[in-house]
């Protein structure tokens, strides 16, 4: 399907966003590192704090990026914004209100895959982008949908409990939508988005099924 915008418009959108919100990108990185710290060193209400930060990241993407910036070149961003806001509210409901989400880094295979996705989103993604010629401010920084969705999958792989299926739906859909658009635009670093979406969702669904069988 032909996109309603050009690569030049898409990259200009990143530039407009990055220049307008600076220095909030730094705060978003700090919030992400806070999640990593709390997942390793548990404190009182750690799980609620992590879920709240994830909610804030998705609300930020929905309101600030999609609704305020991306809609200027793509009217579908109104729908995307609504979905991202909805994902933020899901993290608030399941993670903050119900406290049914729990996060803890473990040095097993799944934990290391989650760590790999987190490191990729925060460090390797921007370095790859730079090598492909996507230089700040015309580059997707953390806090924008693709790297932040990869980060979210990494954090969910650190879950101590069954992750509700509804929590996975929107990030998985975005991994497909975001990758398909990025592929047409030549944003090669976003190939990892599809890989993260498929792999993390499959692992989390397998773990959920395994837990259900063990409880019978």
Using brief descriptors, characterize the structure shown:
216 residues, mainly alpha, globular
Q: Tell me the count of domains.
A: 1
Decide which structural class fits the backbone. Answer: mainly alpha
Q: What is the typical, i.e. mean, pLDDT?
A: 93
Distance between the termini: 46 Å
Low-confidence stretches: none
User: How much beta, percentage-wise?
Assistant: under 5%
Give the biggest beta sheet.
none
What is the H-and-E element order?
Answer: HHHHHHHH
Please give the share of residues in helix: over 70%
Number of strands: 0
User: What would you call the quaternary organization?
Assistant: single chain
Total helix count?
8
**Rg computed from alpha carbons, rounded to a whole number of angstroms:** 17 Å
> What sort of overall outline do the alpha carbons produce when their principal axes are compared?
globular
Notes on the structure:
This protein is mainly α and 216 residues long. The chain has one domain. 72% of the residues lie in helices and 0% in strands. The chain contains 8 helices and no strands. The protein has helices at 7-21, 24-40, 46-67, 77-97, 109-131, 145-156, 165-185, 191-214. The termini are far apart.
